[in-house]
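Slide 14.
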Amino acid sequence: MKKRYQQFNHKRKIKKLTAVELQHCSELAKKVSYGGNPEHKMNPGDFGLTPPSGPRPGKSLCDTVKIFSKKIALEHLQSGLRQGLISERCNGEWPQNIWSVTQKGVALEAQLENPETGIYHGYPMPESDPLAAEITKLWKL
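Slide 15: predicted structure.
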Protein backbone atom coordinates (compact mmCIF):
# COMPACT_ATOMS: atom_id res chain seq x y z
CA MET A 1 0.00 0.00 0.00
CA LYS A 2 1.34 3.42 -0.97
CA LYS A 3 1.78 5.94 1.80
CA ARG A 4 -0.28 9.10 1.23
CA TYR A 5 1.48 12.38 1.81
CA GLN A 6 -0.61 15.40 2.63
CA GLN A 7 -0.16 18.14 0.08
CA PHE A 8 -0.82 21.78 0.78
CA ASN A 9 -1.70 24.56 -1.59
CA HIS A 10 1.57 26.44 -1.81
CA LYS A 11 -0.09 29.26 -3.75
CA ARG A 12 -1.70 30.56 -0.53
CA LYS A 13 -0.04 33.80 0.46
CA ILE A 14 -0.82 36.19 3.30
CA LYS A 15 -1.61 39.65 1.98
CA LYS A 16 0.41 42.56 3.34
CA LEU A 17 -2.21 45.20 4.06
CA THR A 18 -2.20 48.98 4.03
CA ALA A 19 -4.05 50.84 6.80
CA VAL A 20 -6.98 51.42 4.41
CA GLU A 21 -7.15 47.70 3.51
CA LEU A 22 -7.04 46.75 7.21
CA GLN A 23 -9.97 49.12 7.84
CA HIS A 24 -11.85 47.44 4.96
CA CYS A 25 -11.22 44.05 6.62
CA SER A 26 -12.77 45.39 9.84
CA GLU A 27 -15.85 46.40 7.84
CA LEU A 28 -16.00 42.96 6.21
CA ALA A 29 -15.87 41.37 9.70
CA LYS A 30 -19.29 42.90 10.36
CA LYS A 31 -20.78 41.25 7.24
CA VAL A 32 -19.02 37.87 7.05
CA SER A 33 -20.94 34.62 7.65
CA TYR A 34 -19.97 31.09 8.62
CA GLY A 35 -21.62 28.18 6.84
CA GLY A 36 -19.57 25.14 7.80
CA ASN A 37 -18.82 21.93 5.93
CA PRO A 38 -19.95 18.46 7.09
CA GLU A 39 -16.60 16.98 5.96
CA HIS A 40 -14.89 18.81 8.85
CA LYS A 41 -17.35 17.76 11.57
CA MET A 42 -17.69 14.58 13.59
CA ASN A 43 -20.47 16.13 15.67
CA PRO A 44 -22.73 18.60 13.84
CA GLY A 45 -23.26 20.89 16.84
CA ASP A 46 -25.53 23.81 15.91
CA PHE A 47 -24.15 24.23 12.38
CA GLY A 48 -27.36 23.03 10.69
CA LEU A 49 -25.42 21.06 8.08
CA THR A 50 -26.81 18.68 5.47
CA PRO A 51 -25.78 15.94 5.92
CA PRO A 52 -25.45 16.69 9.65
CA SER A 53 -21.88 15.39 9.75
CA GLY A 54 -19.80 13.40 7.35
CA PRO A 55 -16.13 13.38 8.29
CA ARG A 56 -13.96 12.39 5.38
CA PRO A 57 -10.62 10.64 5.88
CA GLY A 58 -7.79 13.12 5.52
CA LYS A 59 -9.91 16.14 6.46
CA SER A 60 -9.08 18.01 9.66
CA LEU A 61 -11.95 18.14 12.12
CA CYS A 62 -13.21 21.16 14.04
CA ASP A 63 -14.05 18.72 16.84
CA THR A 64 -10.32 18.32 17.59
CA VAL A 65 -10.12 21.99 18.63
CA LYS A 66 -13.50 21.92 20.39
CA ILE A 67 -15.34 24.22 17.97
CA PHE A 68 -18.89 22.91 18.24
CA SER A 69 -20.87 26.13 17.78
CA LYS A 70 -21.42 28.32 14.76
CA LYS A 71 -21.05 31.38 17.01
CA ILE A 72 -17.50 30.42 18.03
CA ALA A 73 -16.55 29.60 14.43
CA LEU A 74 -17.85 33.00 13.32
CA GLU A 75 -15.91 34.75 16.10
CA HIS A 76 -12.67 33.15 14.85
CA LEU A 77 -13.50 34.22 11.30
CA GLN A 78 -14.20 37.79 12.39
CA SER A 79 -11.00 37.93 14.48
CA GLY A 80 -8.92 36.83 11.52
CA LEU A 81 -10.47 39.54 9.36
CA ARG A 82 -9.98 42.25 11.99
CA GLN A 83 -6.32 41.27 12.25
CA GLY A 84 -5.97 41.29 8.48
CA LEU A 85 -4.86 37.67 8.15
CA ILE A 86 -6.25 37.22 4.67
CA SER A 87 -5.02 35.74 1.41
CA GLU A 88 -3.72 37.75 -1.51
CA ARG A 89 -6.32 36.03 -3.68
CA CYS A 90 -9.80 37.57 -3.54
CA ASN A 91 -13.12 36.91 -5.21
CA GLY A 92 -14.88 40.26 -5.43
CA GLU A 93 -14.47 41.97 -2.08
CA TRP A 94 -13.96 38.70 -0.20
CA PRO A 95 -10.56 37.09 0.42
CA GLN A 96 -10.32 33.45 -0.65
CA ASN A 97 -8.85 32.53 2.76
CA ILE A 98 -9.01 33.98 6.24
CA TRP A 99 -6.78 32.69 9.04
CA SER A 100 -6.99 32.88 12.82
CA VAL A 101 -5.63 31.08 15.88
CA THR A 102 -7.43 29.41 18.80
CA GLN A 103 -6.66 30.31 22.41
CA LYS A 104 -4.63 27.09 22.58
CA GLY A 105 -2.46 28.21 19.65
CA VAL A 106 -3.96 26.11 16.82
CA ALA A 107 -4.02 27.85 13.43
CA LEU A 108 -7.38 27.84 11.64
CA GLU A 109 -8.05 28.34 7.95
CA ALA A 110 -11.34 29.42 6.38
CA GLN A 111 -12.19 29.15 2.68
CA LEU A 112 -14.71 31.25 0.83
CA GLU A 113 -17.81 29.26 -0.12
CA ASN A 114 -19.96 32.00 -1.62
CA PRO A 115 -18.41 35.25 -2.93
CA GLU A 116 -21.82 36.90 -3.31
CA THR A 117 -22.71 36.57 0.36
CA GLY A 118 -19.33 36.23 2.14
CA ILE A 119 -19.99 32.75 3.53
CA TYR A 120 -16.99 30.65 4.61
CA HIS A 121 -16.23 27.23 6.03
CA GLY A 122 -13.16 26.54 8.12
CA TYR A 123 -11.02 23.90 9.76
CA PRO A 124 -7.90 23.51 11.90
CA MET A 125 -4.67 23.60 9.93
CA PRO A 126 -2.44 20.55 10.33
CA GLU A 127 0.81 21.28 12.16
CA SER A 128 2.63 19.89 9.13
CA ASP A 129 1.27 22.73 6.96
CA PRO A 130 4.16 25.24 6.68
CA LEU A 131 1.68 28.13 6.59
CA ALA A 132 0.27 27.17 10.03
CA ALA A 133 3.49 28.21 11.79
CA GLU A 134 3.53 31.51 9.92
CA ILE A 135 -0.10 32.23 10.89
CA THR A 136 0.61 31.42 14.55
CA LYS A 137 3.66 33.69 14.53
CA LEU A 138 1.70 36.62 13.06
CA TRP A 139 -1.29 36.22 15.41
CA LYS A 140 -1.72 39.10 17.88
CA LEU A 141 -4.17 38.88 20.77
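Speaker note: DSSP finds three helices and six strands in the chain.
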